[in-house]
Amino acid sequence: MSQERSYLDTNIIFHRKLSTKDIIATIESAIGHTFTYCSAFVVAEHKRVFLQTMRLLWVVFKENDSIDEVLKNIENHQWRSSQEKDRCMKIFNWFTANKNSTKDHTIAQLENMIFSYDSFHFGDIDVLESEINCPLARIKINSRKELMNVSLICPLRCSISDFLRNQRESLIQVQKGIEKINHLQLVVAILKKIDNNPEDCDENDCRTLADTIIILEAPEDFLICSNNGRDFNPISKALGKKFLFIRY
């Protein structure tokens, strides 16, 4: 393991810094003394998923008088999925120490994290260039003014379709490798659509294909690390890449 180069996915990068001590210890033990890497696409995905949630929490805390009111707003927010809500609650619990912190302290903690996001999460990780070149990867928030004004939503136009066109042969490999796996049928359907016309790929497709893109961008001799073995294992296998399931 000590000679491996580890390629970390979005969740691993987040949980190895902001999680319970036992989970952090599990991740660090699995990674060992390897050199750690991720792609700029992972950084972009990280900011779209986690940084966006932190900013939403910051806004809710600023607009309400108590932690209980913040919880009510989280409950009533129009979430895209239960996963997004669960993610927000997990971040809420971390920053409030399970409701034991004051509102002002939590706001300060959120601001400190947002302003130091890159150095905190990616300071000891080598970030590899991504062919997708998503502008979200380059976003930095250094002030309260930027915190409100910087866009963290996907750009109207990016090079995802160009990337997928260049990766056509690999995408066919993935499609064939997972076509009989029930829970990956949406991925299969999108891959078939892209095979006919890469230009049809939109923001929702990019989100669904995020795991596939992360694995595609992993260098051949790197060890891909994720806690999502259900998706990462079959896709990595289809592409002939090494995968390490970190269970926590």
Number of domains: 1
Roughly how many Å is the radius of gyration? 19 Å
- Specify the biggest β-sheet: 5 strands, parallel
What is the distance, rounded to the nearest whole angstrom, between the alpha carbons of the first and last residues? 19 Å
Unreliable stretches covering 5 or more consecutive residues: none
Overall, the morphology is globular
Average pLDDT: 93
Strand content: 5-15%
User: Helical amount among residues, as a percent range?
Assistant: 55-70%
Helix tally equals: 14
State the gist of this model:
By secondary structure, the protein is α/β, with parallel strands linked by helices.
Topology record:
Elements: E1 5-8, H1 10-15, H2 21-31, E2 35-39, H3 40-63, H4 67-76, H5 82-96, H6 103-115, H7 117-122, E3 126-128, H8 144-149, H9 160-166, H10 168-178, H11 185-196, H12 203-208, H13 210-217, E4 223-226, H14 229-238, E5 242-245
Parallel strand pairs: 1-2, 1-4, 2-3, 4-5
Helix pairs in contact: 3-5, 3-6, 10-11, 10-14, 13-14
Please give a structural write-up.
The chain is of the alpha/beta class and 248 residues long. The protein has one domain. Helix content is 58%, strand content 8%. The chain is built from 14 helices and 5 strands. A 5-stranded parallel sheet has the order 3-2-1-4-5. Helix 14 links the parallel strand 4 (223-226) and strand 5. Helix 3 packs antiparallel against helix 6 (103-115), helix 10 (168-178) crosses helix 14 (229-238) and helix 13 (210-217) crosses helix 14 (229-238). The longest helix is centred in the first third of the chain and has 24 residues, at 40-63.
